[in-house]
Amino acid sequence: MSPRTSPAHPTPVRPVLLALALAAAAACGSPTDSDDDSPTPEPGDTLEVQPSLARLEVVNNVEASQAFTVELVKPSGTRFDVTDDVRWTLGDPLIGSFTGAVFTARGGSAGLTTATATLDTVSGSANIEVFVRGVRVGPGAPANAPDLFATGTLDPAAAPEIAYPDDQVIVPRNLGDLEVHWRDGHGHDLFELSMVNDHVDLKVYLPGTGATGYSAFETGEWYAASMGGDDITINVRALTVASPATFGAATPRVIKLTETNLEGGLYYWAATAAGGAPYGIFRHDFGNPNMAAEPVFTTTEAGRCVACHVLSRDGEKMAITYMGGNGDSTIIDVASRQPMVPAMQEYWNFGTYSPDGTRLVTSRMGTLTVRDGTTGVAIGGANGTVPTGGAWVTHPDFSPLGNLLLYVRGTVVHQNADWHIASGEIMSVSYDAATGAWGTPTPIISGNGNNYYPSVSPDGQWVLFNRSTEDAYDDASAELWVARIDGSGARKLDLANVGANLTNSWARWAPFRATFGPDGATEDLYWITWSSKRDFGVRLVGVGRPQLWMSPFFPGRVAAGGDPTAPAFRLPFQDISSNNHIAQWTEIVVPIGKIQETPTRAGPGPTQMK
């Protein structure tokens, strides 16, 4: 029997246990006595990246590179070069890339970002600051265009004028594109368009012979500028190539950028002339800002006109009506673009989904009907009809909080049509999502004309609505108004409206809160969209073609008494040749899969434009 296990010899056990304990301690190390001879990361170790700040400049798309070194630092100060062993990540992946420990900036983005080196569970970081400078001479412009402006003298009397965008416009960083339009009454034939901020200085040279012109920056140029600072200054200079001694310079315009990107998807109705391109429901995914609008359910898929539509919050279902006003209806599975149910002899015009998508409230002939959100079948019983006191009602909108429904009660109705309501007042009725029970309707916005198209903000605290002197159908006098959810504090949104008789109609909220402003002084904002027949710079002037426009809404500015919006901008993804209406938002853009053949059904074009 060994001394370790024999109860007759207890004394020899202590030295053996002590030796084993010391050996274990030496093998495992301790916070105060780590193994400084090993490059393997241990608790208390750090990674040090050098240089700690790298500044690179990309000029005319010529790449710029910086090599980094990484050392593993032990608590005792011992260092190991682990440059070849770490993996790299970038705060802004589009600002450049790593090959081994060499970072290369290619001009796709600009600004300050963080490069993080990681070895097992230990990481260290460095800052990378990229500046982008560039000159691009467009087709038809002389190759020496930059030199002509560099040697010319400013003539204040020869200034062109920037027609779009407005000064101090606020846009999301991921807008993807922004056109610049100008007017020129001096016969210039060469124009310099510039975009400048803390990290970007880009110039584009373009020929021109008319009194107006416009251009957009390339995708990479816009992205670099949008990431390169909190604002962008744009300017236009102009000269005549035959006599370049002087040039004119417009008054600059400043574009301000939000802190956060715009999220969600926008589905809208694009209408074209009979015999033109497919028309119907298109969408844009703000997660892919450079993509053009995507057809979802148009005359190609449906075989006939489709117009009024409403999306579930999760983006999976879209309830639509065919053939304009009082048309039959169905519910579309967005992923397949196929009807989930056959076309129903259930006629309706306006609709809204409950936040959970289980209920769909529709309007037809002054009645609000509660339906199953998937099948469209009317719900029976006391909860199947929204209480309205027998009034003619339309334009329902669920609060994103699911606790109430707004709708419009009309005291005057023309042509027995939901869209021809006049002298409307906006009503609020509570809703219990657990039981499906409705409360008692209460008027919240009345008088001062016709009040209609209510829309509840994502936080459930505000109602956006139209007010006009007409009957709610294609009203030239329609203007955007906002009030608190109880109807108090109603006010016109002057900066968003920009002027009278522009058919500023059918406003809706984007589904997420965003932020704007410098660190320590950021403001909350919610984006609003609407259709408007206003001029678009120099491209749509006096034609009255509705396009989709957007502006931020700042809740904190209401109490301060200032205008809670900002100058509006046109959403760049839409077709300028179509009439674009009924912008509906969803939180998620569901990918569209393989499309099956859809039976077609001949029929006329849209009969009502709501």
Q: Topology, please?
A:
Blueprint lengths: L12 H16 L17 E5 L2 E7 L4 E4 L1 E5 L5 E3 L5 E4 L6 E3 L2 E4 L5 E9 L2 E16 L7 H7 L1 E2 L6 E4 L4 E3 L7 E5 L6 E7 L3 E8 L4 E5 L2 H9 L3 E10 L2 E7 L3 E5 L7 E7 L8 E6 L8 E5 H4 L3 E6 L5 E6 L6 E5 L4 E2 L10 E4 L5 E6 L2 E6 L19 E7 L5 E10 L7 E12 L4 E2 L3 E4 L4 E7 L5 E7 L10 E6 L6 E2 L1 H4 L7 E12 L6 E10 L14 E7 L2 H4 L9 E2 L8 E8 L24
Structural description of this entry:
The chain is mainly β and 610 residues long. The protein folds into three domains: 85 residues, Immunoglobulin-like; 120 residues, Immunoglobulins (Immunoglobulin-like, Sandwich), CATH 2.60.40; 316 residues, Neuraminidase, CATH 2.120.10. The protein has six helices and 44 strands. The strands form ten sheets. Strands 2, 6, 9, 10, 11, 13, 15, 16, 18, 19 and 20 form an eleven-stranded mixed sheet that branches. Strands 31, 32, 33, 34 and 35 form a five-stranded antiparallel sheet that branches. The relative contact order is 0.10. The N terminus and C terminus are likely disordered.
Note the main attributes of this structure.
five-stranded antiparallel β-sheet; Immunoglobulin-like; globular; 44 strands; 7% helix; single chain; 43% strand; eleven-stranded mixed β-sheet; Neuraminidase; 3 domains; 610 residues; mainly beta; 6 helices
